[in-house]
Amino acid sequence: MEHETGHHPRIPAAGHHRDVNGGWLRPAVFGAMDGLVSNFALMTGVVGGAVSNSTVVLTGLAGLAAGACSMAAGEYTSVASQRELVQAEIEVERLELRRNPHGELAELTQLYVERGVEPELAHEVARQLSADPEQTLEIHAREELGVDPNDLPSPWVAAGSSFVCFAVGALLPLLPYLLGATSLLPALLVAAVGLFTCGAVVARVTARTWWYSGVRQLLLGGVAAGVTYLLGALIGGQV
Q1: Can you spell out the DSSP letters for the chain?
Q2: Stronger pLDDT, 146 or 164, i.e. the higher one
């Protein structure tokens, strides 16, 4: 339908969508959240055990280094394994296209028929699209596997994003102690602001409102810190 001015409504360009394939966004978000929550909870636990400030700083630095390396290694292994699995399935599809092109053509035709295209038109569309072997492979991968062979997530990008963001998140509650703080309160305030901000930033790439996401992350982080503080206080008094 046209507007009164006679112009058609503007349709966004296909390339204007945000990256949702998980190549960098997921590890970055999880890295920052995990770094902030885990390191703050770790530091809170040792503070509950009534240790010295130097021990709190050492614990925070160790948590930052160990956590960042662990997250990066885990993300690399996870994404690399997923990528290798997808590539193996794509190679299976490539082999099937070589061995049985007519069967694959019929399969693609049936996919379009199931989506409401008339059989004759579906067959003609599938035939024309199948003229280029690489294009045929890409279409089959998208239709059958739900992936784009040319846009698979990089394990190096995932690992790097996770490492950097975890380190930044873990550094936030540690900064007050590095700058001379002698109590948990400054770290608590910095961590609270960081938790809420991280949650609000995540809302920018999701359908949630910024305040809901921020409050949710603040509450989750607060629960984690509270539990470890109680454990530190209980165990520290017995050691």
Answers
A1: ---TTSPPPPPPPGGGSPP-SSSSHHHHHHHHHHHHHHHHHHHHHHHHTT--HHHHHHHHHHHHHHHHHHHHHHHHHHHHHHHHHHHHHHHHHHHHHHH-HHHHHHHHHHHHHHTT--HHHHHHHHHHHTTSHHHHHHHHIIIII---TTSPPPHHHHHHHHHHHHHHHHHGGGHHHHTT--SHHHHHHHHHHHHHHHHHHHHTTSSS-HHHHHHHHHHHHHHHHHHHHHHHHHHHTT-
A2: 164
